[in-house]
Design brief:
The two termini are 60 Å apart. The protein has helices spanning 7-26, 33-117, 129-141, 159-174, 182-210. It folds into 2 domains: 7-75; 80-210. It has 5 helices and no strands.
Length: 216
């Protein structure tokens, strides 16, 4: 246990000792012991009161310091929480913007591919098959590759991607000869892509509202 002794405490102690010596010096030889004890008791009581007040002052100071430290800790926690929330918000906004860009690119690719596949049906120029292959590859590269494999026994969330992959595979098999009518493949592609885009749009809305990625 440490005792914090200041200059004021030392001064008080010296003053007390001086006061006791003064009392004793003025006592006559035949003065009673009671007088000595009474004077000493008064001085001791004053000294005890002084140190008690000093202890109370120190306790108040320590409480104030503790309160300041607690306030600082709360402020630090609040700042860290705010920074974390800001980072998450920025992440969600970035992902949402990228998904919007992905949907726009998919719509553009499908629109142009469907137009090429229906070229013969419209009675216009034949389809540019180099462009068809380029668009088909561009769409496939934007799909989830997990959709090219059969679904697991318990199913998965890639059926919309899988349906579009199947249409693209059928288009590659049909080729220019059109073993499967190109216009029919265009219809299937539009149908399945609409389902895929709608699911991605709903996902983006939920994430934007909740502020969390991957909301089911």
């Amino acid at each position: 246990m440490s005792i914090d002794v200041s200059k004021a405490d030392i001064g008080m102690a010296v003053g007390t000792v001086t006061a006791i010596a003064g009392v004793l010096a003025h006592l006559k030889f035949d003065s009673s012991v009671t007088t000595v004890l009474t004077a000493s008791g008064v001085i001791a009581t004053a000294l005890a009161s002084y140190f008690k007040s000093r202890s109370a002052a120190r306790s108040a100071q320590e409480s104030e310091t503790s309160a300041r430290n607690s306030a600082r800790d709360v402020a630090n926690i609040a700042a860290a929480t705010a920074a974390d929330n800001t980072a998450k918000t920025v992440l969600v906004q970035t992902v949402t913007a990228e998904r919007a860009k992905w949907r726009a690119e998919m719509r553009d690719q499908v629109e142009r591919l469907a137009a090429q596949l229906r070229a013969d049906q419209r009675g216009g120029p034949s389809a540019d098959w180099e462009q068809v292959d380029r668009l088909r590859t561009g769409i496939r590269l934007r799909l989830n590759p997990a959709g090219r494999t059969p679904p697991p026994a318990g199913g998965d969330a890639h059926d919309p991607d899988r349906a579009v992959h199947h249409v693209l595979d059928a288009l590659a098999t049909a080729g220019e000869s059109g073993t499967t009518p190109h216009a029919a493949l265009a219809d299937q592609l539009e149908e399945h892509m609409a389902v895929l885009l709608k699911g991605e749009w709903d996902k983006s809305k939920l994430e934007a509202v909740s502020g969390k990625l991957g909301v089911p």
